[in-house]
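Hi W.,

Here's what went into the run:
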Amino acid sequence: MAEYRLHCFGESGNAYKAALMLALSGADWERVPIDYFSGQTRSPEFRETINEMGEAPVLEHHGRRLTQSGVILTYLAEQTGKFGPANDDERYEILRWILFDNHKFTSYYATLRFQFGIQKTGDTPVTEFLRGRATAAYGIVEKHLAGRSFLLGDRLTIADFSLAGYVYYPEATGMDLTAYPNIMAWKARIAAMPGWAEPYDLMGPPAKQY
Ligand SMILES: N[C@@H](CCC(=O)N[C@@H](CS)C(=O)NCC(=O)O)C(=O)O
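Here's what came out:
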């Protein structure tokens, strides 16, 4: 059995954040597939034995079970000694971006992609609202990345893995990411790192063709 076990599924960008960290830090890990589209995360068994919050990702390590990608990233940075903060200022800066990501950058974009690109709802007042919120969050990150290689400056950290969770997925959102040149360059910088792979290569293929 591998040292780290990541409960995940291909479509989950929140799980991809942890998978990216495991892959780029060279950890010994394996995936434990979740059958999300058959309702596994909503089953009483999953909630009682794997994650009461009913979500991916879940990381198992030496008898510990951790959930929430931000917690998992923080834990992995401490365990591996890689991609973590170098001092207190960086610790707070990383936490600041992880919180912004969970509230705005990932959450609106991921929900938009789920509705528009996976459930194929077409445009509705909900997707239009989500796209407006995601566009605002992308604009903030685009501005922050001007003149910086990564969120904290010159060095790749877990804050980047958090925000990078959904930017490599191919499903339609009705947003054109090429309109964000700093985000596109940042995405390419992360993709050039040794160990990087596409979400569906790291965590398993999509449940169907979207
Ligand atoms: N804030 C959480 C979000 C996790 C999350 O929303 N995971 C999705 C998959 S990407 C999920 O399992 N959703 C199940 C549900 O909400 O029912 C994290 O960062 O881990």
